[in-house]
Every structure is written in structure tokens, then in C-alpha cells.
């Protein structure tokens, strides 16, 4: 399997290792790597190449699924492209460049005219993350609003807060806007402020937060876990993000992930989706920070 290079170390409220342990992902990653190497040792082990691409926030967990899928389907090789955004993945499916598109949002009006099939397969907690030098462990909605407005400029230890924005049209930005009308207005203010840092892709967003002291941004729990990101995961309104707190309704923020295919997908595509939604696939996805919510209505 051709996969993204996500060799990372993680921390959450000091270290992300505890998060990895809680999700048992530490057990999955070595197995996935072994499966990748096993398939790679057989140059001609696959007759069919299944091409997947789209939003960066879904790539890590899909890489894990693909590794286990290839082990059970030796006639299929999975090629996963680096982040090409939801829009890029949807367009690539419509043009026949890839077989499965990964989207972090519903299709827009123009994309709906393409006649594609779409279904939601998972939700991942959408989480505030910071550089590991940030001294706090939790943020409230009011604090996030004040940070976006520029009314709160420093952490409690006096270090400068460096907020990382995403493009205004990005699905992550829309999730933040949707927290409340007041939050939406605060996002508008943030985009009007001079000198703001903007990350184009999910991977660039995490890279900047890892490397830049004092930074704050948002990403999905599944990206932080599966890419082994060295990030400080913050609780939101006092609730720690997890699959369990999301499932129970205690944790309020999530990002949906959708699979997009052509109306009559090839057999390899159907087999991949069947594996993804199987009991084994669901277990892998949940341990990687996803709540499985298969919804074929496209909503």
C-alpha cells in the first residue's frame, strides 16, 4: 500500500500516549505497519489498484483500514494520495482519476449535479489542539471567541497566543462558525486581523501547531491519533474529547467523514466499503478516534 508519511509522536495534556493507550491504537499501528511491509515484499501481489484521496483529516484512519483490507484481499492494492481536500477528492472521483473520494462535508449544489454516490461513514471529535508548551488543559467557548476576536492575546503564563486559521471556505472553518452565531462573528473578526497564520491543509495545520510555540487550532481526534501528532489536546468546556464522550452526547463538536464514489462503483470499491463497515472495520475505526455512523442518505 502506498500511504502518507505520518511518523509522529503524540502528547495530550502532557502526552498523547495515554490517548493512544485508551483507544488501543498502539496495538493497531505496529500490526498495520507489518501488513504494509508484507504486501510491499510482493511486487505483484495485487491485480487491481484501488485509488483513494480527499480530505486530510480522514487519511490516517483510512490508511489503517487499507492495511488490514489488503491483508484480507491479496488481489487488491490500495493507493492513498496525500491530502487533496474534500473538493479535490470529489472532483477526482467525478473525473475518474480516483475510485473513492473522502470528504469532510456534504456535496455542494454544483457537486450534486455530478451524479455521485455519497454516504457518511464516521464522525470524529473536532478538538482544540495547542503546541506542547501551552500551559492550559481546557478551553471554554467564551475563551475561544475572545481569542478569535483578538481580545485574549496571551496564555496565563504571558506567552503570546498564535491562532491558526483555516481558509474561510474550509469545512473546519464552517464547523467553528457553527458553534454559535457569536462564534461565527468572531471568525469574521479573526479573518480581518493582520498577521494571522492560515493553514491550507489538515496536515499543514498540524505541522504548524507542532512546530510553533504558543499556537492554537482545531483538528480531528482521528488525525491526531493516527498521525501520531505531537500536539496538546485540550478539553472543551471541561469535557475531554473521545469517542465515548462524543457518542454519549457530552462532547459537542465533531467532524463528519463521507465516502464519495461513482454511481456504480467497481467490485473492488464495494469490497473496500464492505470491509470498512464490517465488525472488524468498525473496531479499527473506533480505536482510531472515529464514531461509526453509517448513513447512506447523503445528509
Quick description:
This protein has 13 helices and 12 strands.
CATH top level of the largest domain?
Alpha Beta
Helix proportion range:
40-55%
- Mean pLDDT, to the nearest integer, reads 89
Structural class: alpha/beta
> What is the number of beta strands?
12
Q: And the CATH topology of the largest domain?
A: D-Maltodextrin-Binding Protein, domain 2
* Residue runs with pLDDT of under 50 for 5 or more positions: 3-24, 39-43
Oligomer: single chain
Give the topology string: H per helix, E per strand.
Answer: HHEHEHEHEEHEHHEHEHEEHEHHE
Number of domains: 2
Fourth CATH level, the homologous superfamily of the largest domain: Periplasmic binding protein-like II
Give the termini separation.
Answer: 31 Å
Q: Radius of gyration, rounded? A: 19 Å
Largest sheet: 10 strands, mixed
List its traits.
single chain, 299 residues, D-Maltodextrin-Binding Protein, domain 2, ten-stranded mixed β-sheet, two-stranded parallel sheet, globular, disordered N terminus
Explain how this protein is built.
- The structure is a single chain.
- By secondary structure, the chain is of the alpha/beta class.
- The protein folds into 2 domains: 19-101 and 265-295, Periplasmic binding protein-like II (D-Maltodextrin-Binding Protein, domain 2), CATH 3.40.190.10; 125-247, D-Maltodextrin-Binding Protein, domain 2 (3-Layer(aba) Sandwich), CATH 3.40.190.10.
- It contains 13 helices and 12 strands.
- Strand 1, helix 3 and strand 2 (76-80) form a beta-alpha-beta unit.
- Residues 3-24 and 39-43 have low confidence and may be disordered.
Amino acid at each position: 500500500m502506498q500511504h502518507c508519511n505520518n511518523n509522529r509522536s503524540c502528547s495530550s495534556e502532557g502526552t498523547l500516549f495515554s490517548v493512544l493507550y485508551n483507544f488501543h491504537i498502539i496495538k493497531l499501528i505496529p500490526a498495520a505497519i507489518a501488513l504494509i511491509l508484507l504486501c510491499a515484499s510482493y511486487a505483484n501481489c495485487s491485480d487491481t489498484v484501488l485509488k483513494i484521496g480527499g480530505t486530510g483529516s480522514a487519511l490516517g484512519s483510512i490508511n489503517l483500514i487499507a492495511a488490514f483490507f489488503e491483508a484480507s484481499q491479496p488481489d487488491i492494492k490500495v493507493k492513498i494520495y496525500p491530502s487533496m481536500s474534500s473538493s479535490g477528492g470529489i472532483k477526482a472521483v467525478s473525473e475518474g482519476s480516483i475510485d473513492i473520494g473522502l470528504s469532510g462535508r456534504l456535496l455542494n449544489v454544483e457537486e450534486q449535479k455530478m451524479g455521485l454516490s455519497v454516504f457518511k461513514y464516521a464522525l470524529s471529535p473536532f478538538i482544540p489542539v495547542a503546541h506542547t508548551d501551552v500551559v492550559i488543559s481546557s478551553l471554554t467557548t467564551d475563551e475561544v471567541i475572545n481569542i478569535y476576536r483578538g481580545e485574549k492575546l496571551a496564555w496565563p503564563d504571558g506567552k503570546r497566543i498564535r491562532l491558526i486559521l483555516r481558509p474561510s471556505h474550509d469545512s473546519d472553518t464552517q464547523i467553528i462558525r457553527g458553534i454559535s452565531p457569536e462564534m461565527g462573528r468572531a471568525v469574521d473578526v479573526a479573518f480581518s486581523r493582520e498577521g494571522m497564520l492560515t493553514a491550507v491543509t489538515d496536515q499543514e495545520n498540524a505541522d504548524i501547531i507542532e512546530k510553533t510555540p504558543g499556537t492554537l487550532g482545531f483538528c480531528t481526534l482521528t488525525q491526531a491519533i493516527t498521525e501520531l501528532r505531537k500536539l496538546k489536546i485540550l478539553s472543551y468546556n471541561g469535557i475531554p474529547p473521545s469517542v465515548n464522550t462524543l457518542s454519549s452526547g457530552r462532547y459537542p463538536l465533531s467532524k463528519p467523514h463521507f465516502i464519495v464514489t461513482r454511481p456504480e462503483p467497481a467490485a473492488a470499491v464495494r469490497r473496500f466499503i464492505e470491509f470498512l463497515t464490517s465488525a472488524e472495520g468498525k473496531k479499527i475505526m473506533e480505536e482510531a478516534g472515529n464514531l461509526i455512523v453509517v448513513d447512506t442518505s447523503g445528509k
